[in-house]
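Risk register update: the risk that structure generation would not scale has been downgraded. Supporting records follow, first protein first.
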Amino acid sequence: MEGGSQVSPLQEAKCAAKARYKPARTYELFPYQDQQQLPQQKHTDIKSKADRLRELKQLLDEKLITQADYEKEKKKILDDDEK
């Protein structure tokens, strides 16, 4: 044997394979969310009827919708609770 360390052909092949490996896909991991938290998050995104009516009135005042559209959408918002 010589003074230096020798690398076996198998080890050499493994090193070459590692150098060539390039993954086709990468994945991003997200923290696990408990299923019970999901409905609560959706609830906070829902605007109150008053907020929706205020926005609708603002659209009417800015003449972005007609009076007929305003009345139609207002009825939808107010009747939304009864379903």
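Supporting record for the second protein:
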Amino acid sequence: MEQLLFYVYLLLSMKYGKLYIGQTRDLLQRFEYHNNNRSGFTKNKGPWVLLAFKRFATRGEAMAEENRLKKLKNRQRILEEFGLNPDDFTQLLDFN
């Protein structure tokens, strides 16, 4: 039996240097959804680049991680939580 996976993902707006955290079961479809201006927060702020994602066995686990990451508010810490080096993104991110 195939196990369904759920994802928490991190997007970067190449237009504004903003990060977006979300969760989904279909990562590719959700990424296309954001880049086609079909999501409220991300609408007209693309193009979006997928920086990283984490896998979870249940939607509950994914939602808990999404909420935990969103509460961090610190972009540098969020990047680190996804295993990324904030110094690699200083030219792209709006740290204000």
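The beta strands are 6-13, 19-24, 48-56. On this basis the risk owner (M.S.) recommends closing the item.
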